[in-house]
Amino acid sequence: xxxxxxxxxxxxxxxxxxxxxxxxxxxxxxxxxxxxxxxxxxxxxxxxxxxxxxxxxxxxxxxxxxxxxxxxxxxxxxxxxxxxxxxxxxxxxxxxxxxxxxxxxxxxxxxxxxxxxxxx
Length: 120
Prior knowledge:
The protein has 120 residues and is of the alpha+beta class. It is built from two helices and six strands, in the order H-E-E-H-E-E-E-E. It has a six-stranded antiparallel beta sheet with strand order 1-2-6-5-4-3, with helices on both faces.
């Protein structure tokens, strides 16, 4: 039987709660990320800094760009720490940015905005 992994459990919960798949590309913004941020072989963005430094960097970058967000957290959940930035600016391609600290890594996830399904 596979061992329970908190990092995967929280990532799956974030994706399920947001109603999205873990696919990337559409929501990846034209947004500067903390120095040292890189993609791992699975395509996840890993910050080169801790949760607080990453959160502070993103908050300052969003303010500099004039993107209004609501910051939720940081808060602890099942051994991991999470900070969320929920966009209040309709023109962003992403609805939220999740910064997750677990297993000694700080991960950055961009939640894509739902596509409009207006009918004529």
